[in-house]
Amino acid sequence: MSYSIGEVVKKTGLSAHTLRYYEKEGLLPFVKKNASGVRAYSDEDLRWLTMIECLKDSGLQIKEIRQYIEWFNEGDSTLPQRLSLFENRRKILEKEMARLTVVMNKIRYKELLYREAVRVGNLDVATNERRFQHLKKKLFESPDDFDK
Amino acid sequence: MSYSIGEVVKKTGLSAHTLRYYEKEGLLPFVKKNASGVRAYSDEDLRWLTMIECLKDSGLQIKEIRQYIEWFNEGDSTLPQRLSLFENRRKILEKEMARLTVVMNKIRYKELLYREAVRVGNLDVATNERRFQHLKKKLFESPDDFDK
DNA sequence: TCTGTACCTAGAGTTAGCTCTAAGTATTAT
DNA sequence: ATAATACTTAGAGCTAACTCTAGGTACAGA
């Protein structure tokens, strides 16, 4: 099976501009073209696009994805490099999730505080309520930094 | 207490360029300047910088942070808007954490697979091992999309 | 043959968030 | 007094990842 760029747009949700851009950046080195230059994407190309999306979602830059694809095409001699890429990425994702957890706590505190402030119609009154003072001390190292 | 831009650079880790840029974008509407135009940051300004960093970490754009600061300065009449901002942010962070969890599973699968591939020196052999076939089926809707 | 749609390339433009440069003023230490 | 350091502004430059434009080709249906 092969697919026109328009069909791939429908399948992937990427724009035709973006698909051509990816190709120019070396992310799709196997896409074939017919005699008049029109692209014909294979099922293999679509699987690459799925993988590219996953790597992109994990935070890899396009040039890093291109590097991965080059390693893949060089065969088993680059297995250690590829392992190392996934290890690093896993560590970065772990840090990112930890970071988001910390941010989430702060934002949730703000949401609760503002819900109370809206209820009583006054931010300072809400901020000075014992339970919010308590919560703030529990959550933050320098609690007053969160009075803004 | 007041601080020169250089002291704030040391305290916050932001560059002087970035601090002036933030001010130009309306993020620090209270910073005072002396007769010769030199900035003198107050403790209040530093607290704003902490809050700005938190909002930035939560994914807010600079113009959205400026909007929040404007609301803050307008007083209690804008409490509902601010509550709504934090509610939306909390929801977006929840989605982001869910997204990262999904991505993490895929990357961890790849890491395990490549660790085995490096051990046996061959990606195809590792991919075809029963436990990786099993893992792949468990993790993904279209497992073959992850053979890249 | 005409009309419309889908496709092509090369290259310019956009956006966010910095980051840096140039040219000048002010402050501090010796 | 002089040298070094820190500060100022306006505005240009950078990077990533698109996003769009202009001008053209290819082909299908009425």
Provide a descriptive summary of the structure in words.
Two copies of one chain form a homodimer. With 148 residues, chain A is mainly α. Helices cover 70% and strands 5% of the residues of chain A. Chain A has helices at 5-12, 16-24, 43-57, 62-74, 79-120, 123-128, 130-139; strands at 2-3, 32-33, 39-42. Chain A has a three-stranded antiparallel beta sheet. In chain A, strand 2 (32-33) and strand 3 (39-42) form a beta hairpin. The N and C termini of chain A lie far apart (58 Å). The interface between A and B is large, with 44 and 44 residues. The structure holds a DNA duplex (30 and 30 nucleotides).
Keywords:
homodimer, 148 residues, mainly alpha, 7 helices, 3 strands, elongated, DNA-binding
- State the end-to-end distance of chain A: 58 Å
- DSSP strand count of chain A: 3
- Averaging pLDDT over every residue of chain A, what do you get? 95
Indicate the overall shape of chain A: elongated
Gyration radius of chain A, in Å = 25 Å
**Helix share of residues of chain A?**
55-70%
Largest interface: A-B, 44 and 44 residues
Task: Please indicate the percent range of residues of chain A in DSSP E strands (runs of 2 or more).
Answer: 5-15%
Quaternary status: homodimer
Q: Mind summarizing the main beta sheet of chain A?
A: 3 strands, antiparallel
Indicate the structural class of chain A: mainly alpha
> Numbering strands along the chain, what is their spatial order in the largest sheet of chain A?
1-3-2
Number of helices of chain A: 7
Instruction: Show unreliable segments of chain A.
Output: none
Order of helices and strands of chain A: EHHEEHHHHH
